[in-house]
């Protein structure tokens, strides 16, 4: 079995790359620091350890999602990481699964590995989408369906991804039938933050009409259309959840959008694109 065909989500993490090494170093530093902080915040040792690892994973995923959204600029991801480190107290007991789910959706759309997602990838994203739909909100199911259907229409198209999207849509429908569709309360409390991060992120989208980055396994340039669709999908995800209920993980996504945008606007001329 060709592992590249069945595990497209798995991107190599070359430690010879300065950026990769730096994010691992930051993550490894954040975990014990977070454990100590939570332990002395009256948490039990086990709870502090779990909180520490959760924080470290969120920091790493913030970097990973940023790299998917702005593949041409290594340092923009570290601006996002800096922001998330500043706002760590706002994350609280944030779940890592939604951020990981976003990462999978983005890698499906932009094909950053260079390999079309295969059976194993589709199975995993359907399982994760179903889990979040059934335990948290049907919005995850709708957005997973949207991501898969959008991917199936972008070249090179794949009918398997279309049917995976249809299947996810059916699962979402079945999940809301027993109790009926419960519409979340619309809240505009985060609207100012949402507007700010969206404005900051616009230069990232507008500057992605030409992409220099190459895929991990094929060494071919990434498709600008796919990269831009992934960026728009990230905005849709943040918008969808920001107007319903603010979850801790959303602050990490605010940092991703704002951080990559701030790099484009203020730091790109001062700092190198690559480490």
Automatic annotation (TrEMBL):
Keyword Transmembrane helix: yes
UniProt keyword annotations, A-Z: Membrane, Transmembrane, Transmembrane helix
Stretches that traverse the bilayer: 21-40, 46-65, 77-103, 123-150, 162-182, 188-206, 227-243, 249-267
Keyword Transmembrane: yes
Name of the featured protein: Uncharacterized protein
Source organism of the structure: Methanolobus zinderi
């Amino acid at each position: 079995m060709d592992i590249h065909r069945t595990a497209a989500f798995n991107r190599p993490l070359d430690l010879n790359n300065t950026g990769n090494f730096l994010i691992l170093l930051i993550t490894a530093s954040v975990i014990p620091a977070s454990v100590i902080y939570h332990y002395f915040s009256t948490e039990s040792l086990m709870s502090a350890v779990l909180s520490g690892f959760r924080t470290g994973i969120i920091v790493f995923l913030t970097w990973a999602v940023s790299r998917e959204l702005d593949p041409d600029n290594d340092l923009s991801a570290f601006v996002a990481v800096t922001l998330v480190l500043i706002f760590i107290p706002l994350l609280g007991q944030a779940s890592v699964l939604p951020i990981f789910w976003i990462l999978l959706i983005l890698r499906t759309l932009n094909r950053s590995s260079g390999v079309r997602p295969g059976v194993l990838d589709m199975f995993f994203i359907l399982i994760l989408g179903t889990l979040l739909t059934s335990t948290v909100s049907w919005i995850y199911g709708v957005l997973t369906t949207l991501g898969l259907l959008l991917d199936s229409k972008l070249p090179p198209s794949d009918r398997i991804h279309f049917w995976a999207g249809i299947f996810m849509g059916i699962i979402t429908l079945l999940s809301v039938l027993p109790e009926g569709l419960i519409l979340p309360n619309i809240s505009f409390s985060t609207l100012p933050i949402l507007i700010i991060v969206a404005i900051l992120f616009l230069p990232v989208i507008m500057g992605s009409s030409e992409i220099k980055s190459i895929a991990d396994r094929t060494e071919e340039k990434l498709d600008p259309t796919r990269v831009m669709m992934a960026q728009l999908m990230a905005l849709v995800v943040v918008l969808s959840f920001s107007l319903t209920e603010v979850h801790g993980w959303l602050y990490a996504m605010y940092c991703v959008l704002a951080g990559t945008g701030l790099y484009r606007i203020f730091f790109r001329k001062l700092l190198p694109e690559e480490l």
